[in-house]
């Protein structure tokens, strides 16, 4: 049903796009960067005010960014809600996304994108064979498609791969994928787009997973961490919901943190948590979040009901709109932690945290070439999948092995260092990076290694 609509939209999209200005050249879009434990838009703190956008629901595979008409229909509502970000769970990397991304940029809206699809993802029950070169090729090709949009805010390397204690065994693979994506972005000289993981709403190992993703060598750490949270069920409060504890427990965490899904629907939703999330009681540690979810699906979390070209707003839509409109961001920088940086790896504590140490699988041998050659062709949703394909990892990585390899194609245009390394203080280093000639890249590599932070161009 949806397929034909998408195809039409794409045909129309393709012809319009030729005339449209190239999105990467848009000077009016400011890319989001990481400083300390926060996001920034230029010199201003950036808080995610977003929704999760998956019309059709989690069980139906669709790419809403390739559906230009649907996207434009919904942008009107995003704007009315006062959003600055949407999250999309899967995209077909063989399709064109210019028209929707351009329209989102016009509306001041950024995209947080999950790079995985059901056919190209890690298998939590048996992660080793699923971490292979065919899988990496797909997700690298997705990076190629989205890296040049300045309103691509961030990539999720995984979503709820770990959903209980025992599945924490898969954590080294999640972390290896995150490392590889970050290395790919640097090796291909793209803008340094933040990469991180979206964790399930589970108390037993949320903190360990967050710490795990931010321990070890700089190439192995994430740029941010996010988790899904349904613990605030109206009527509630900062303390009743336990959000006060989630601030306390994450105080001192060195990466930007946000809620990748929130909005408990047990009772009537008033979205009272919005006033807590953008209040200084939380903004020293959290950078906003994404409400689950835009469209009404079987799970009953929707803000609107979509039927064809019509969008009917529901009671939850009005409640959220009202909550956003009466909640402004804190003055100044919201009390963020300018230092940021790594933490020690969590200790093994099975069955809740069944990971010993922090050694990671090395990148599968045949995937190494993508770092220098690029990923090439994008298989899209119709690709044959990666679960049991390709070649798996055969060895353990040497810490630091995920540093980017020098790319001969460096134009100095995209590889400004931000949040890698010791995460903090990097924004000031971007300007020199932009003017760098390829000849200087080697020197900068050495300097950045010496100074630790920021300028990771290796
Ligand atoms: C906070 O940390 C304490 C101590 O580690 C733990 O018992 C508690 O469950 C955590 N609370 C939340 C909400 O994560
Ligand atoms: C800021 O972050 C650093 C590094 O994670 C941490 O050591 C320090 O305690 C944090 N400061 C505050 C006030 O949270």
Question: What distinguishing features does this structure have?
Answer:
three-stranded antiparallel β-sheet; TIM Barrel; 29% helix; globular; 14 helices; single chain; 458 residues; 14% strand; 2 domains; binds 2-acetamido-2-deoxy-beta-D-glucopyranose; alpha/beta; eight-stranded parallel beta barrel
Describe the structure.
There is one protein chain. The chain contains 14 helices and 13 strands. The protein has 458 residues and is of the alpha/beta class. It has two domains: 2-22 and 437-451, no CATH class; 32-325, TIM Barrel (Alpha-Beta Barrel). The strands form three sheets. It has an eight-stranded parallel beta barrel. A three-stranded antiparallel sheet has the order 1-2-3, with no helix packed on it. The site of one 2-acetamido-2-deoxy-beta-D-glucopyranose has 7 residues, from helix 7 and helix 8.
Secondary-structure map:
Layout: H1 2-19, E1 32-35, E2 38-41, E3 44-46, E4 48-52, H2 68-81, E5 85-88, H3 98-106, E6 110-114, H4 127-130, H5 133-146, E7 152-159, H6 171-187, E8 195-199, H7 206-212, E9 224-229, H8 243-250, E10 257-262, H9 273-277, H10 280-283, E11 288-291, E12 304-307, E13 310-313, H11 315-325, H12 369-373, H13 430-434, H14 438-451
The structure holds 2-acetamido-2-deoxy-beta-D-glucopyranose (2 copies).
């Amino acid at each position: 049903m949806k397929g034909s609509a998408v195809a039409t939209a794409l045909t129309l999209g393709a012809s319009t796009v030729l005339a449209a200005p190239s999105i990467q050249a848009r000077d009016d879009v400011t890319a989001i960067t990481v400083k300390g434990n926060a996001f920034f838009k230029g010199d201003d703190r950036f808080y995610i005010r977003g929704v999760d956008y998956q019309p059709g629901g989690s069980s139906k595979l669709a790419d809403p960014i390739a559906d230009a008409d649907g996207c434009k229909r919904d942008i009107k509502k995003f704007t009315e809600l006062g959003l600055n970000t949407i999250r999309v769970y899967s995209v077909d990397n063989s399709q064109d996304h210019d028209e929707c991304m351009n329209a989102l940029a016009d509306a001041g809206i950024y995209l947080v994108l999950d790079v995985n699809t059901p056919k190209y993802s890690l298998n939590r029950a048996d992660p080793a064979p699923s971490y292979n070169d065919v899988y990496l090729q797909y997700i690298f090709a997705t990076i190629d498609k989205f890296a040049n949009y300045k309103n691509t805010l961030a990539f999720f390397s995984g979503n709820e791969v770990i959903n209980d204690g025992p599945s924490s065994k898969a954590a080294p693979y999640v972390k290896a994928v995150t490392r590889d994506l970050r290395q790919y972005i640097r090796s291909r000289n793209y803008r340094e787009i933040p990469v991180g993981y979206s964790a399930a709403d589970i108390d037993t190992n949320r903190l360990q997973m967050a710490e795990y993703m931010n321990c070890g060598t700089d190439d192995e750490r994430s740029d941010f961490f996010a988790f899904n949270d349904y613990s605030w069920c109206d009527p509630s409060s900062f303390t009743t919901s336990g959000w006060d504890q989630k601030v306390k427990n994450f105080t001192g965490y060195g990466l930007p943190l946000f809620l990748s899904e929130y909005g408990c629907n047990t009772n009537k939703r008033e979205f009272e948590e919005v006033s807590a999330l953008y209040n200084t009681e939380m903004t020293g540690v959290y950078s906003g979040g994404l409400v689950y979810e835009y469209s009404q699906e079987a799970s009953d979390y929707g803000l609107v009901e979509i039927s064809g070209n019509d969008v009917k707003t529901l009671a939850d839509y009005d409640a959220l709109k009202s909550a956003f409109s009466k909640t402004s961001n804190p003055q100044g920088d919201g009390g963020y932690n300018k230092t940021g940086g790594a933490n020690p790896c969590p200790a093994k504590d099975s069955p809740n945290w069944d990971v010993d140490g922090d050694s990671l699988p090395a990148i599968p041998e045949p995937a190494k070439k993508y770092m220098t050659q690029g990923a090439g062709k994008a298989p899209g949703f119709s690709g044959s999948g990666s679960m049991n394909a390709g070649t798996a990892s055969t060895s353990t990585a040497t810490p630091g092995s995920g540093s980017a390899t020098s790319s001969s194609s460096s134009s100095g245009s995209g590889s400004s260092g931000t949040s890698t390394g010791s995460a903090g203080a990097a924004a000031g280093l971007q300007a020199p990076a932009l003017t760098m000639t390829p000849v200087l890249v080697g020197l900068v590599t050495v300097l950045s290694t010496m100074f630790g932070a920021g300028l990771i161009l290796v």
